[in-house]
């Protein structure tokens, strides 16, 4: 049963990385928009 915990942890880590990358892209776009004004 330990492998269920391992798979859930792996999925959680991957989703955290994807969310972090999307957040970083979004904040870079917001900074770029503010600099253009």
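^ Assign residues to that structure.
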């Amino acid at each position: 049963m330990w492998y269920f915990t391992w798979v859930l942890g792996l999925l959680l880590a991957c989703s955290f990385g994807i969310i972090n990358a999307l957040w970083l892209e979004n904040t870079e776009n917001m900074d770029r928009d503010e600099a253009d004004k």
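The chain has one helix and no strands.
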